[in-house]
Amino acid sequence: MPYLQLFVPQGKSESEAQAILNYLRDNFPLNQSEGRVHRVAANFILFEQPEHTGLTLEQEVWLEKHGGEELARVEQGFWANRVCEVCKTPVDDSPTGFCPRCYATNPNLITHLTLHFQSDEYPYVEFLCRHIWGSGIESPCLRTYLQAFLYLLEQEQLTVKGISQAGLERFKTGAQAYTHKARTTCSNCGLPEEQCDCDNFPALQFSDDLESHEVNVPISREDYRNLQAFAEQRGMDVETFALCALGMPEVQLAAASREAALGRIFNCQMDLQLKGPETKARSTTAVIETESFNPGLFHLVNMCLSLIDAAPMLETSLLDILYGLRREPQNGLSLAQQKKQLAVIDAPVAQTAMSCTAGEVKALEQQIGYALPIAYKEFLTWMGHGAGSFLRYLDCFYPSLAPLQQTARAMLTTDACRSTLADDAFVFTLISGEGFAFIRTSEGDDPPVYAHRRVWRNAPFRKIYHRFSDLITVQLGLYTELRRPRIFQDVPGVESRRRYRAMTPKIQAAAAQKVQEMRENR
Amino acid sequence: MSTRIEDYIPFDYMRYVGEILPALEQATRGNTIPLSELITSATHFSLTLRSKYALPLPEEESNSWLWPFEGLFDASALRRIKSGEAWDPWRALATVVPTLEGKSLTTLGKFGEMLKFHLFATFCCEVPPWLVKWPNPYAGFTSHQWYDGAVIWHEEVTFVWNAYCARDEEMQALWGAFYRPAPPDLMQLLHIHDDSSSVNYEYTPRYMNIFSETEKEMSISGFMTLEEIQHLLEHVRIHERPVLDSIIDDCIRYGESRHWAIDIEALSGDAIKSEDELAGEESWHYLEQQGMYIKHRVVFEQWKKVHPVEMEAFLERNYQMLHMVEDEILHRMRFAAERGWGILIMDAKL
Question: What residues contact A243, with CB distance under 8 A and at least 6 apart?
Fold first, then answer.
């Protein structure tokens, strides 16, 4: 179906844009084309026309009479109804103004901060954003870092005085070392240049003659203003100030931890991964599988390897988490293993864990009107009041838990979300401006975790972990790796292929086991 | 990959200024009769300046032409046409006529300009049968045995042809008429604006304000009047073999592709320069081993001595091509002169 897209000219205020769009919606002629208004976004209106790929004569004449490009700029041959791949909803209607999947932005809500990187830093930025975070481009990943940075500043978990160029220098040094290594190590055999026997070593390495690269990071206008204010307080320009964040372990951990709480563990989007095996088990039609290349498996193996590179501690539990394989609690406790791990990883932090009292747990249950699942109560009685720097970047501790229920529901109302939370939903963490995670009190002792992101318009609530305890395991893995400055490293060449071959059968076995377990459960 | 083409089209500018433009102007004032009558009188249709089709349009091609005209049909008609129903471009363009009222010749709008273009192409332009049939360079890719595209079919040919036309002052003066300011009365009649004071783009005094939706990035960059054509035909020298820089450059590329060596010791000192010493617009050949530059013309002279047969054959091919172009353009000029017409230069993207 052809589409005709009419854009509001640049420089119009939000109210002016709205007035123009309303006028176009009500008056733009569609008789000749038999068209209809398909949708109205923040800065354009989209018409669906059954036959015409461009303006009809009546539309051309009408536009001429109404000011032509002063009124609206015409885009012809619109290729498809652009919707978010995830939520299948027009992205321009996202309450955040930005879709992290297709990168569309609402110009009334979003502005861009331009970050410049030198040619010896940029390969690392690419690697970090594309490989570790799995973003198609750099800007959404850097946006996540900036949002985490702002959150830490606003919550006073970082002080403006504490921001120094040391963070920036640390990032630059690490990035340059990465780039140097990448340029002097053969991407085929993985050996340093002097030991490499590959015929075409130079051709295998990436080259880059550009002096600098710029990345336009989409952030909300409000965030931009706040960032600017903090930068001014610190006496830095906003770009330098923002770049400082990239070398700060607090920002790295906060970004990863907050994203994981909403179901994205670096490049692994749990909501998408969790759909796969369940769909397969339910399938009643035969699926033809061959021994030849399987792109789905290839992607999954590489994603797992990348995730293990980023957070090695997750290696032993990753497939359990992805597939939700059956696991018996230790001594009837869901979080026993995690407790032990934290004590090993960071004993001082483990000792600072402050539990909720039985009375506080009871009071919380009374406030929400339901009994909480056992695993969650274990969490409260382990670290309900916090545990030092572990999970400190999530709003998930007593006594803010009860108010979270209202805040989350208010978020849905404000965003005109099409669904409401179930009565038995218990929101245990909320990421301001982004979304929240919840469990349902009726779904067992160690219940699945669901999340809502404001950009998920069509399917607002998605399962992101099979068990609450999985989320804690993931957070532990991230904490272990990221609480100290970390420059991620690539594994090239032969070693990479060896790991691929080793990981593939493990994943296949886990997938088969999951299917088997699901059949048994039926 | 695309290239720019250039073509020389005989055109009846008197009919354009005496009939087409006045009819359009009348329509902008509310009198649609002359324009409607003109449209009704059409017995053929020109999709581009050099094509002419009898009506109804050939069925096998008409659908591929439909796109620019889509906006003139309503959805149901368009559906029928897409399913194979014949369509008449003049009936479609006639729907534009009533919308012209209140506009001016410079603000006809997209469909108004489209109407103007097809009126101009259909009633004022005609390409005669080719003087000599050219073999189709795309034979094997198309079913046509003989070439029927633009007389200057590639940018490379444009460079050589323009250099040939400017080979000396006399020839430059003759061929330069295309780009000299036209007589003021004719400029006024053709509605050509004097943009000579503009600093935004290169001034082309005879640029005609005619746009095409059917030919990519088409523009009419110049024209000659009947008198200028007659003058040119009377004084032009033909089939000359000047040693043009553009031909030399071609020869150098040809030699390079064959890895011909250059005997540096046989050259005089001033023929070789470092990068800092380069000046002027002359072409220089880069000697990679020495990191120095050598004049193209010097290399050319040396290779002519060392590889006389190949170089002569190469030059001959270049001159043959130039003379073929020259003959065809002069043939079209004679065709125009016989009818009391002018000739225009159009360029477009292929």
Answer: A115, A168, A171
Residues A53, A54, A60: CA angle, nearest 5 degrees: 155
Q: Does B95 touch chain A (CB under 8 A)?
A: yes
Looking at per-residue confidence, does A202 or B11 come out higher?
B11
CA distance B115 to B95: 10
Measured distance CA(A189)–CA(A494) in Å, rounded:
5
Query: What pLDDT score does B187 carry?
Result: 86
pLDDT band, residue A281 (cuts 50/70/90) = very low
- Distance set, CA B178 to CA A124, B208, B224, B332 (Å): 57, 12, 5, 15
- pLDDT tens for each residue of B225-261: 999 999 999 999 999 999 998 888 888 888 888 888 8
Interchain pair B70, A51: CB under 8 A: yes
B63 at A interface, C-beta within 8 A: no
Closest CA of chain B from A72, distance in Å = 15
| Bridge pairing between strands B284-287 and B292-295 | antiparallel
Q: Does A252 touch chain B (CB under 8 A)?
A: no
pTM higher than 0.80: no
What is the C-alpha to C-alpha distance for residues A389 and A250, in angstroms, rounded to an integer?
10
A136 touches B at CB < 8 Å: no
Residue B330 near residue B238 (C-beta atoms within 8 A): yes
| Res B268 pLDDT > 80 | no
A56/B109 CB distance under 8 A: no
Query: Residue A151, class by beta-carbon neighbours within 10 Å (0-12 exposed, 13-18 middle, 19+ buried)?
Result: buried
Are A6 and A45 in contact by the 8 Å Cβ rule? The answer is yes
Provide, as residue numbers in chain A, all residues whose Cβ is less than 8 Å from the Cβ of B75. Answer: 32-35, 49-52
Q: Closest to B78 (Cβ–Cβ): which among A31, A52, A59?
A: A52
Q: How far apart are CA A266 and CA A417, in angstroms?
A: 26
* CB contact B106 to A (< 8 Å): no
pLDDT of residue A282: 46
CA distance, residue A54 to nearest chain B CA (Å): 7
Q: Dig out the tokens for B88 from the structure.
A: 């008449």
Once rounded to an integer, what is the mean pLDDT over residues A285-303? 65
d(CA A152, CA A140): 19
ipTM of the complex as predicted? 0.81
A55 part of contact set with chain B, CB < 8 Å: yes
Residue B222 β-bridge partners: B345
Under a CB-based contact definition with an 8 Å cutoff, are residues A470 and A320 in contact? yes
**CA pair distance B347, B150, nearest whole angstrom:** 9
Nearest chain A residue to B68 by CA distance is A54
Closest CA to B20 of B48, B44, B39: B39
**Which two structure tokens, joined as six digits, stand for B96?**
């534009």
Q: Cite the DSSP H helix spans in B190-267.
A: 226-235, 245-257
Task: Return mean pLDDT, chain A.
Answer: 87
Question: Using CA atoms in the order A269, A272, A277, A279, what is the torsion angle rounded to 10 degrees?
Answer: 170
Tell whether B78 lies on the interface with A, counting CB pairs under 8 A: yes
End-to-end distance of chain A based on CA atoms, in angstroms? 43
Q: Above 80 in pLDDT, residue A284?
A: no
CA distance A165 to A177: 18
Residue B224 φ/ψ, nearest 5 degrees: -120, 145
pLDDT digits (tens, 9 = 90+) for A35-59: 999 888 888 898 888 899 889 999 9
The phi and psi torsions of B65 (rounded to 5 degrees) equal: -95, -5
Q: Which residues of chain A have a CB within 8 Å of the CB of B99? A: 57, 61
Report the C-alpha gap between B350 and A146 in whole angstroms: 47
Q: How confident is the model over B58-67, as a mean pLDDT?
A: 80
Residues of A in Cβ contact (< 8 Å) with B110: 55, 60
